[in-house]
Design brief:
Blueprint (H helix, E strand, L loop, with lengths): L1 H21 L6 H4 L19 E9 L2 E9 L26 E5 L3 E3 L2 E3 L2 E8 L4 E7 L11 H5 L1 E26 L2 E19 L2
Antiparallel strand pairs: 1-2, 2-3, 3-6, 4-5, 4-9, 6-7, 7-8, 8-9
Length: 200
């Protein structure tokens, strides 16, 4: 009985290590780690949070995905080029990094990704933004360190558009276009759109 128990513990540890290192799981991550768990890897994560967590489930053809992101408020502040400086990396939200879960291989903003867990961040500019995707999902917030960047799996330049009416809370919505889902990140007067499509 002790050998069986020890074997099960070793299997659980090995499975956990594979998921943490690769982001790939045989069981959908939303089932066994929760869809949008609070990150407790930093002392800052235990402080009161000014921003709520947003959660968006979406489909694109046969693909099922989920996005978890912090929802900061504008509160009268200048956002892009102010609170979020141009030319610097930003977590695309508040608190935890913006995390994306995919249950099958997909193209995300033109970046080819296998099924798994990822974090998204951007480098905003006045006209076009660069989207970065990393396998690091256990770092806190805007701590986009060399270790986080070392786990990048791709980047892509994406255009942004101006909104007619400003949006107070960072809000992500999904709309469908054939087998592609368009994730629209709206905040202040700016919209960043990320197309996501399953790979055949």
């Amino acid at each position: 009985m002790r050998r069986v128990l020890a074997g099960l513990i070793l299997l659980l540890l090995a499975t956990t290590a594979v998921v943490v290192v690769t982001g790939i799981s045989l069981v959908p991550p939303g089932i066994w780690i929760g869809p949008c768990l609070y990150d407790r890897t930093s002392a800052l994560s235990y402080h009161p949070r000014a921003s709520s967590m947003g959660q968006l489930r979406f489909t694109a053809g046969a693909l099922n995905g989920e996005l978890c992101y912090g929802r900061p408020a504008a509160r009268g502040r200048a956002i892009y080029g102010g609170l979020v400086p141009y030319g610097q990396l930003w977590r695309l939200g508040a608190n935890e990094p913006t995390r994306l879960y995919l249950d099958r291989a997909a193209s995300v903003g033109g970046i080819t990704l296998p099924a798994g867990r990822y974090s998204l961040y951007v480098r905003p500019d006045s006209t076009a933004w660069t989207l970065y995707v990393t396998r690091s999902v256990l770092h806190w917030g805007n701590d986009i360190s060399e270790a986080v960047r070392a786990r990048e799996v791709g980047h892509a330049d994406l255009a942004v558009t101006r909104l007619d009416h400003p949006v107070e809370l960072l809000t992500v919505t999904a709309s469908s276009l054939a087998d592609t889902t368009l994730l629209a990140f709206d905040w202040a007067s700016t919209r960043l759109t990320i197309p996501i499509a399953p790979l055949r």
